[in-house]
Amino acid sequence: MQTLNRKFVGALSLVAVAAMGLTACSTGSETAEPSASSSMAAPSSSAMASESPMADSDMDPAANLVGSGCAAYAEAVPSGDGSVAGMAKDPVAVAASNNPLLKTLTAAVSGKLNPKVDLVDTLNGDEFTVFAPVDDAFAAIPEKDLNAVVKDADALSGILTYHVVPGQIAPADLSGDYTTVAGQDLEVTGSGDDLKVNGASVICGGVQTANATVYLVDEVLMPPAKK
Asked: Which residue from 38, 186, 199, 221 has the least number of CB within 10 angstroms?
C-alpha cells in the first residue's frame, strides 16, 4: 500500500469510485438489512475501557492533530464542511461524506456500493473512534478483489466495522490493542506523528466530529481470519 505523506493530489481523484461504477448508483441509500449493521449493536467492553475523555466543544478542532499528512490535508481542504473545522460540526458519517479524501469510504458505509450495507445511522448514533482509509487506499486494492468484497454484504460489513472502535480515543492515548465493533482485534503502535494501525500509517489523526474521533489511514485494514 502506498503512503500519503506527500500532497493529497492523488487522493482527490475518485479512481476507486470510478472503477466500481458508482455512476450507476443512486444518490440516496436504501434501508439496511439487519445483517449488515447488527455487528455494530454491542460495543466491546474491553475497547470501551481504553476510551479517553475528549476536550470540550470550545476547543480548537486542530489542537490534537497528529500525523505527517495533516499539513497537506489542511492545504487540500482548507475550509468548508470537509475541513478539520468543518468536520467537527457534524456526526461522523455526515462529516466523512463532506471530506473529498473519503469518497469511497462514504459510498461503502452509506449503501451506495451495496444497498444491504448501510451503517450511517449506527455510526452517527454513538461515540466511536474511526480509522478511515482514504481513497488511494481503496484504489490500491485490485479491482477484482474489491468488486468481490462489495458484492458480499457480510464481508463488506465485516471489513467496515473492523475500522471502528467504540468510544472516542485521543491521539495521546491511542497506542494499544483494541477490540473493534466487528469483534476482532487490531493493534495501534507508535506515537505522535508516527502512529500505525496494524502496520497502516496514520496520515492525519485526532480529527474531531460531533460524535467521533477520526484517523485517516493509508491502507484498508483487513480483519484477521476467524478461527
From this structure: 199
